[in-house]
Specification:
InterPro entries: DPM1-like, Glyco_trans_2-like, Nucleotide-diphossugar_trans. Helix content is about 40%, strand content about 15%. The protein is of the alpha/beta class and about 240 residues long. Helix 5 packs parallel to helix 8 (about 220-235) and helix 7 runs parallel beside helix 8 (about 220-235). The chain has a single domain, classed as Spore Coat Polysaccharide Biosynthesis Protein SpsA, Chain A (Alpha-Beta Complex), CATH 3.90.550.10. Strands 3-2-1-4-7-5-8 form a seven-stranded mixed beta sheet, sandwiched between helices. It contains eight helices and nine strands.
Length: about 240
């Protein structure tokens, strides 16, 4: 059995899901994939079930009844992976904004290096983003700077969603106490790993905006991140933050 599991949340990713699955399985290292699908109207889950015939015992699917948010999708995936014998559990998007080839670099940072958490970072060596308008680059870069300032974490890309966790990190974090469901979930997971003194390493990657399908970004997600971070840090100062 592979020791590494890649969790890929999906909602209306029929244009990407087959390609991303086949790309991951073509890598030189063995990865298993868990798709967590939120009842995509475009029948993403049906395509995954079809591909399971081609990739038995290495491609898995969890279907949820509603669109419940990115954070809960990953928590569902984390718990699924922890119930099995995976030592390295990854977060990755379905839309090729994260290059599957970089999975091996994140894996090596944890398995051969000193990292407990390896982040595929857009900003650790400058700004490595392709196909985003300048306004969105500045919003994302500025958000990471803001979070770094508020939380005190020495992380350049605090909102990154391309990550490898060692098993013991996810075992130590109380996943039932995660508050955020949108992109602020990514900040909260890093903050909890930081408070627990785990070694966090940023691995430079190039982020390429999706060319197929639609972005799931919304004003509500941004608001959750901006105001949630302040509350999260405030509670941690007064020992009211549950890790």
């Amino acid at each position: 059995m592979a020791e590494a599991l890649v969790i890929i949340p999906t909602y209306n990713e029929i244009e990407n899901v087959e390609r991303i699955i086949k790309n991951v399985f073509s890598l030189q290292r063995d990865f298993h994939i868990l798709i967590v699908d939120d009842s995509s109207p475009d029948l993403t889950a049906a395509k995954v079930k079809e591909l399971q015939q081609e990739y038995p015992d290495i491609l898995f699917l969890v279907e949820r009844k509603d669109k419940l948010g990115l954070g809960t999708a990953y928590i569902t995936g984390f718990k699924w992976g922890l119930e099995r014998s995976y030592n390295y559990i990854f977060e990755m998007d379905a839309d090729f904004s994260h290059n599957p080839n970089d999975l091996i670099r994140l894996y090596n940072a944890c398995s051969k290096g000193t990292a407990d958490v390896a982040i595929g970072s857009r900003y650790v060596t400058g700004v490595n983003v392709v196909n985003w308008p300048m306004s969105r680059v500045l919003l994302s870069w500025g958000a990471s700077k803001y979070v770094r300032f508020i939380t005190g974490m020495d992380i350049h890309d605090t909102t990154a969603g391309f990550i490898c966790y060692k098993r013991e990190v996810l075992e130590k974090i109380n996943l039932d106490k995660i508050k955020f469901v949108g992109y602020a979930f990514q900040i909260e997971m890093k903050f909890k790993a930081y408070l627990l003194k785990f070694k966090i390493k940023e691995v430079p990657v190039i982020f390429t905006d999706r060319t197929r399908g639609n972005s799931k970004m919304s004003k509500g997600i941004i608001s959750e991140a901006v105001f949630g971070v302040i509350k999260m840090k405030f509670n941690s100062l007064f020992n009211r933050y549950e890790i």
